[in-house]
Description:
By secondary structure, the protein is an alpha+beta fold. Helix content is about 45%, strand content about 20%.
Amino acid sequence: MTEWWYNHRTGEVEEGPQSLGSERDGPFATREEAERAPQIAAERSRAWAAEDEAER
Length: 56
């Protein structure tokens, strides 16, 4: 099964881990998911922030 990664330094999607772990997000099941990595991270951050606020 192919894994896809998003490289934050280059903005490129990688098939399999090709760059340093500190430079990439993943793995993702599809290339399309990896392409959306910045949006997915932002959505998760907003959800976590909302959970933190709700706990206060």
